Amino acid sequence: MGHPLPPGDVSYVKLLGQDIILLSSYEAAAELLDRKSAIYSSRPSQIMAGELVGWEQGIGLLPYGEEMKRTRRLLYEAMNGKAMSDLYPLQEREIIKFVQGLLRNPNQLKEHIHQMVGSSLIKLTYGYEVEGVNDPFIVLANEAMAMFSVVTAPGAWIVDTLPFLKHIPWTSFKAKAKEWRALLHALVDRPMKFTRDRIDRGDEMPCLVTRWVERDVKTSTHSKEEAEYNDSLIKWAGASILAAGTDTTASVVATFFALMALHPEVQKRAQTEITQVIGDDRLPKYDDRSSLPYIEAVYREVLRWHAVLPAGLPHLSVATDDDEFRGMRIPKGSVVFAVVQNMHHDPQTYHEPHIFNPERFLGYSRNVERNPESTIFGFGRRRCPGINVARSSVWLAISCVLATYDVGPAVGPDGKPTPPNMKFTNGTISHIEPYECNITPRSAKAVSLIEEAPDVIV
């Protein structure tokens, strides 16, 4: 079969018999994945990641169907706009711990970021209190998501192309899959066991898993099959919150620090806005978001600059026949990628996209460029269910860091600045490569604000 789609914002490639569609503009992705979500909401089978390692039960790779719908209902219930009122105080508490941790040890930036992001999610989901940057559940989530990024990378595993290889013993990929499957099930089972044990002892903490389990007990018909199914659903829903929320959000925050080290003029303007609007007697809180337009612009430009999932996760066409799109043919069974990184650097959408410029998001509505939230969280019925958690976590981190710290390039042994090189890893989830930066309190008053901050921003 020849190429049914011309080059442009929609392109086509056939790789080892698989039809692949690449969407490189918001308009194309919205038209296909949003408006035709009924046939583009499933996931392609991934032998290595899904079947052998087990990620096919997680919300990211779960095929479209009743189980996915039930899982998304649980997640929506946990993280919709109404539920966020319970989560904001948890996030603000962890933000305070974060800025305090940077004061004690600014050289552990990566560890502090992961603790900040993960702690509120673990507390919300399992009622578990994280005990520092090396907490076992934080480490477990980070290791599992690093593995996810590798195991789901397109074209990385020959067994995904030649599925019959899964039946051949003693292959190196099967040994790796066994190791990674154990890691994944540790992520799914251990936090769940912690909460289950507390429920059994009668000293459970309020959390999502406790709520889900107690409701399940009340509504269950108590058949063995139903109990096992619901238990699995709850386990994987909880693990999906922990896994997906920690790694992606941490990547954005790490990129923010590097960008501030490179753009002191942006940092200074943002700090001036915080001082003028909020003052220097308290930290920003999420209720301040609408009052800080330049902070909002910085937040959006950080999201735009580098997409955490550069090509998103693949969508599978489940149409019973070839589909028509803009007068062109998409073969049934095609795998569709929304290439978000291309969308974020499209000169038709963003003026001089290679330049970090928050001002592109300021001004009258007709001049403001597209909010990257419309693309970075996915499309259609696979849009990230944790969008409210992610956006508030990143915004709070950006605003509170700018309120309290100056971020600059590290200084080398020769006394010269060594700015971050802004290189990013490959893989499904992309992270900025290791870098160093200089993090110092803005003033003596900022130090007092950090040290004396209450448990929740008031």
Automatic annotation (TrEMBL):
Record flagged with keyword Manganese? no
User: Which keywords are on file for this protein?
Assistant: Heme, Iron, Metal-binding, Monooxygenase, Oxidoreductase
Tell me the Pfam families matching this sequence: p450
Q: Which domain of life is it from?
A: Eukaryota
Provide the residue positions that the database annotates as binding heme: C384
Does the record's keyword annotation contain Oxidoreductase? yes
Q: What InterPro entries does its record include?
A: Cyt_P450, Cyt_P450_CS, Cyt_P450_E_grp-I, Cyt_P450_sf, Cytochrome_P450_fung
Per the record, the pathway is: Secondary metabolite biosynthesis
Cofactor annotation: heme
Molecular functions (GO terms): heme binding; iron ion binding; monooxygenase activity; oxidoreductase activity, acting on paired donors, with incorporation or reduction of molecular oxygen
Q: To which protein family does this belong?
A: Belongs to the cytochrome P450 family.
Its recorded name reads O-methylsterigmatocystin oxidoreductase
Its source organism is Thanatephorus cucumeris (strain AG1-IB / isolate 7/3/14) (Lettuce bottom rot fungus)
